[in-house]
């Protein structure tokens, strides 16, 4: 706040593990600056985190960051000098980037180069105040077909800008203090041990054992579903009940299986929506027939056969109307029409509002050819991937470890979605699993 008053541009990082009150502190900073009539730009790397911030936007949406930032040598934001966003960036008192650990280092560098260009200054971010916040125990940017070295190289700590960062820390777990719950206190310490890779590893198979006082372990997927979603036929109409629980899994294959099992339990008829897929290049239309396009499932794209029921929990896959409807917003289906879905928002500042979702054209950017996918931009969200759930806070969380975690911080992320061990339910064969942590990044 002193740096804001003095208009001294600096780069700060707020290191805050789950439960230490990061969102509360950030909201207070934003409110304090805005009440003085200054501009505070609230950004986040994920839509879920965005919905928790007043006036929040995803960084990609607000700053027009390139989607394929990792393959560009010197990326910049697609903002012209005369645009409204350029004027905002020239006058802003602070730019806040939440869940920054999921952000590719080149995105931060692109913002830096853009700020220098807009303000005509060669200082770091041209003297603007930047506040990053997050926890490096959580997941890193997703790099397709990457090695651990690729992931580490993509994280912010590998950027040339990290040496300019001033670190601030939140240490005290406020959830534990407010609840005065001893089991939550022990759970908080166990979480940090998991995130810091301090849990004892079995040398014979490289796995860790999940202690009984850390979670409730089940031996079948059906038991896990029943415990996380008890009496779902009676309870699924209760939006508060639906919004506070989910099952998480490392891979989308497991997520789809669980969503299908839960959808079958709901009453009512299944409504199926087929996508319309078209190759944009006429030459490609010959090489890639419609049947082949229908079989593809690129990341971030809804399935060709989208099966839904009234009362289903769904998640948005595109930014629609930020910050109300962001990529990652969870909704409950109210009415299913041929070309519209009426739904109720389950999470974020707009919780409880009714919205209409149309079919929209989706064009994947990470394919060797261009094709258009016309479909509702939603998926079922009774179960979600761990990476998609980062930033979510849940009252009841299930974890399917039939396939172990495969990337840094995934186990820590899923376990830190809840406050106490009584609310964490795990399906883990042999009560063991992998805990992948790149300790050299945490130092």
Automatic annotation (TrEMBL):
Alphabetized Pfam families for the sequence: PIF1 (PF05970), Pif1_2B_dom (PF21530)
Gene that encodes it: LOC112686516
Domain of life: Eukaryota
Name used for this protein in its record: ATP-dependent DNA helicase
Enzyme Commission designation: 5.6.2.3
Lineage start: Eukaryota, Metazoa, Ecdysozoa, Arthropoda, Hexapoda
Keywords: ATP-binding, DNA damage, DNA recombination, DNA repair, Helicase, Hydrolase, Nucleotide-binding
Domain DNA helicase Pif1-like DEAD-box helicase: start-end pairs: 2-203
First-tier enzyme category under EC: isomerase
GO molecular function: 5'-3' DNA helicase activity; ATP binding; hydrolase activity
GO biological process: DNA recombination; DNA repair; telomere maintenance
Cofactor: Mg(2+)
InterPro entries (UniProt xref): DNA_helicase_pif1-like_DEAD (IPR010285), P-loop_NTPase (IPR027417), Pif1-like_2B_dom (IPR049163)
């Amino acid at each position: 706040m002193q740096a804001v008053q003095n208009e001294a541009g600096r780069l700060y990082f707020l290191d805050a593990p789950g439960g230490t009150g990061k969102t509360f502190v950030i909201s207070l900073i934003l409110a304090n600056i805005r009440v003085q009539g200054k501009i505070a730009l609230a950004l986040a790397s994920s839509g879920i985190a965005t919905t928790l911030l007043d006036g929040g936007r995803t960084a990609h949406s607000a700053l027009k960051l390139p989607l394929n930032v990792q393959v560009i040598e010197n990326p910049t934001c697609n903002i012209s000098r005369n645009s409204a966003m350029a004027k905002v960036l020239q006058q802003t008192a602070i730019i806040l980037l939440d869940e920054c650990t999921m952000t590719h280092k080149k995105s931060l560098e692109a913002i830096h180069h853009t700020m220098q260009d807009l303000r005509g200054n060669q200082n770091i971010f041209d003297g603007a105040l930047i506040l990053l916040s997050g926890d490096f125990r959580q997941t890193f940017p997703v790099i397709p077909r990457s090695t651990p070295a690729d992931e580490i190289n993509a994280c912010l700590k590998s950027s040339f800008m990290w040496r300019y960062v001033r670190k601030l820390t939140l240490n005290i777990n406020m959830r534990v203090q407010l609840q005065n719950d001893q089991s939550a206190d022990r759970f908080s310490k166990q979480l940090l041990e998991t995130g810091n890779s301090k849990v004892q590893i079995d040398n014979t198979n490289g796995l860790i054992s999940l202690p009984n006082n850390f979670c409730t372990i089940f031996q079948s997927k059906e038991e896990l579903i029943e415990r996380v979603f008890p009496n779902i036929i009676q309870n699924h109409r209760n939006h508060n009940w639906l919004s506070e629980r989910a099952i998480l899994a490392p891979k989308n294959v497991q997520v789809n299986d669980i969503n299908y099992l839960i959808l079958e339990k709901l009453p009512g008829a299944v409504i199926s929506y087929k996508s319309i897929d078209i190759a944009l290049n006429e030459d490609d239309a010959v090489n890639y027939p419609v049947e082949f396009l229908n079989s593809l499932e690129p990341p971030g794209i809804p399935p060709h056969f989208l099966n839904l029921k009234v009362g289903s929990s769904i998640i948005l896959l595109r930014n629609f109307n930020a910050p109300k409807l962001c990529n990652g917003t969870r909704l409950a289906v109210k009415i299913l029409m041929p070309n519209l879905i009426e739904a109720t928002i389950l999470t974020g500042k707009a919780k409880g509002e009714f919205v209409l979702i149309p079919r929209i054209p989706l064009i994947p950017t990470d394919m060797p050819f261009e094709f258009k996918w016309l479909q509702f931009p939603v998926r079922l969200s009774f179960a979600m991937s761990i990476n998609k759930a980062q930033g979510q806070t849940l009252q009841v969380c299930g974890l399917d470890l039939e396939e172990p975690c495969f990337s840094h911080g995934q186990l820590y992320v899923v376990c830190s979605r809840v406050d106490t061990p009584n609310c964490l339910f795990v399906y883990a064969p042999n009560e063991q699993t992998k805990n992948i942590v790149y300790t050299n990044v945490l130092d």
